[in-house]
Amino acid sequence: MIRNITIHDFFHRSEAVPLIDVRTPAEFEHGHVPGALNVPLFSNEERVRVGTTYKQIGREEAILLGFDLTGAKWSGFIKCALEIAPGKKVGVHCWRGGMRSGAMAWALDLYGFEVYLIQGGYKSYRKWARHLFELNYKIRVLGGMTGSGKTRMLQQMLRTGHQVIDLEDLAQHQGSSYGSMNKMVQPTQEQFENNLSDRLKDLDVSRIVWVEDESLNVGRCSIPNPFWHQMRDAMLFDLKIPLEQRVASLVQEYGGLDKDFLIESTERIRKRLGPEQTKNAVAAIREGRMAEFIRVVLVYYDKSYRTGLSNRTPDQIFSIELSGQTTVAKVQELLTFASAFPVAGQAQS
Hints:
By secondary structure, the chain is α/β, with parallel strands linked by helices. It has two domains: 2-130, Rhodanese-like domain (Oxidized Rhodanese, domain 1), CATH 3.40.250.10; 136-338, Rossmann fold. The protein has 17 helices and twelve strands. β9 (217-218) and β10 (221-222) form a beta hairpin. It is elongated.
């Protein structure tokens, strides 16, 4: 049986089922529904051939070519679908909910699958995802200079049931010149947006959502403007952590990274760091004086943070000095402090 369903209703079914994306590998790589599995009806090259035939000759010739190209593949498609959904319940989509997903749905239905065919395909998913950025969220921003332990605190909050959006994790970048950590690979902008919307869809909008203070760009990924503006208008809790404590934390986090990577990353901020400070930082890296390297670059990053803070509404910034020795203790201090600043009509979380 084939059931036509909106992307919203598909995600809100009581019983979750796998989702198959029948677009090409190139389309899937550029951006896909998080959790979807790619079972391409056509290869990248085959799709070009079908598209060209459609434009130059017509729809019927394109359909015949499509069946010629996929004729020997159908048993493979069905076997792949059985591996993905042994219970024979599966969602299917293509770009616009047209011929590709229709053909796959027909074949799977013929074999005995219960198929949920996504109306409007991936295009409708993208429209739905962008709409999520425009909803009103009860955002609270966790700020503080580099090395303040913001990410660790947010991770602890998430583990204890608080709503958290970790933008750096979604962007696979820690937001500085050194942000890739010499290992993380960023998603495309489109996939970053999809990943963010996947987190937003599960939020309870009546509860507080914590995010880390970020620039508009996290590496090469840009935070969608509607969500970004909400972050800028939200309360910011500015952690005040002693310099030496921040330096020690950053040495532990960055000190073991490849020296060539650290030097290359430092050179990228030469204009902002200044030639003399860049020279000193590079020398410290080469000589293994990691604490000194961190102190040098923090001059720039601390200045940049203070500049960003000055662009916020002053009465929305609340500073807090944390005395706790563990992340758990620091989080409890923060939450207790933040509870004194409720938003009108806002439930605490």
